[in-house]
Fold this protein.
Amino acid sequence: MALLRVRCSGLWGRITSPTMSPTEKVIASLHVNGSADEGRIAAAVVRAASREAGLTAEQASHLADAAAAVVRAIDLRGFDDPRDAAVDLSMVVAAHRVIVRIDDLGLPFNYAAEDEVDGSVISAALEKGWIEQFRHESLGRSGNRTVLSRHLEIGHDLRDSASIEDHHQAHSAPAAGDHIQIETRIATADDADGICQLAWRTYGYTYQHDEYYLPGRLAAMIASGHQISFVSLTTDGMVVGHTGLLLESPEDILVEAGRGMVDPRYRGHHLMSATGQVQAEWLGSSGILAIEAAAVTAHTKTQSENMVANIQLAFLPPIEFRDMPGTGVPDRQTVVGSVYPVADIPAQEIYAPRRDAEMLDSIYQATRFSRTLLESRDGPVEAETRVDVSVHADLGHAILHIRKIGRDLEKVLEERVRAIRAGGVQVIYCDLPLDSPAVDWASEILADASFVFAGPLPLKNRGIDMLRYQSLGSISVDRAQINVKSALAERLLDYVFDQLPESQR
């Protein structure tokens, strides 16, 4: 354990940097042969294991119904002969979520099966609130995988209280003076209550991540290593600053950063810089190459000056900041995406769509990523598109992660978009692999389907850059509600808005 003393604007602190890997607890596994079962065995196992994990009877039943529908679709449509059908089902608890993974070695890119799984099954599950997140992906030689998950309701919910007296008293206290002592360190699960109280002081009850009002859930995420939190505390133990990193697995080379918040009374004391130094210490021993962050555009305080990579419209539910007049946004919140290298990043040659090549080059020139842009007018060589579908019902958006661009992209895109929107999710992002010579051809398909430019996602596809496009469906965005910090972000925002249909701006 390393110790480092930090001084920032009259505040003294020390930071510590232990490392931690995310952990999962397996709660059930099942192998089912044949199609006669029609998902009943899978449903029984998921229902029982979900109850043991902590879901309510109703939540467990809904998750079981969704899992059974997936198994049934695979049994009936995923194999040439239904008698050969087989699935492997596993269930884990990963901090704050119950996760069901359903694997099969059936036909790859079988549209009858995938349309049923991605379409009617998942649309119904999302629409009825049976699941919060869904992902369907190809594992190559390992077959196909469908993942269903929902949060555990761990502990008390701060939003159930009409008022929180301690919070009100603290919120009405005067601003902190210049010369105070602050300790900055990596958080433990015991800090969850304090972090949730900080979220309330910063956002009231408008923050989009539920775990910041559920101390038990947040504590579980921190304890398992799925979230690494960095906190600044006063001498009496009150959490007044926070940032976090989210990890899915120990193999991650790109991690999500964010969750930055500062107690309104302590703004101006550079607490974000202090927690940033703790974070840098942790990253130095982690093997991670870069961190990605999405800064809200209700204000510019958390935005980068020169590491802007993309602008993602309507990414988050509405949000509001306490004691920051003018930051209340009634509509979905746009974010500015940035990527920060924390180690040497290998150079790449990437293919740039002609329609967006100049903007893409400007973004890379402003960052520390060495990229050579190649031109190609080639169409796809492969017949079939490989796409991973990820729906985040809790955040109200979905992502189509194109692994391989095929000649059927237009049909695949139309079917996936229709299925997702049937489940009530309007905002859809589509990511293209920039190592594919067919990316120029694919960008025209996306433009015809009303997708507009968002920007690059460096290292997103297992170290390879992706290019994100976005479609808002029936949602419109107000340019006047979006605040950006840098000249590049302003130019990028104008570029994105110029591509939007008139009805959405």
About this structure: The chain has a mean pLDDT of 83.
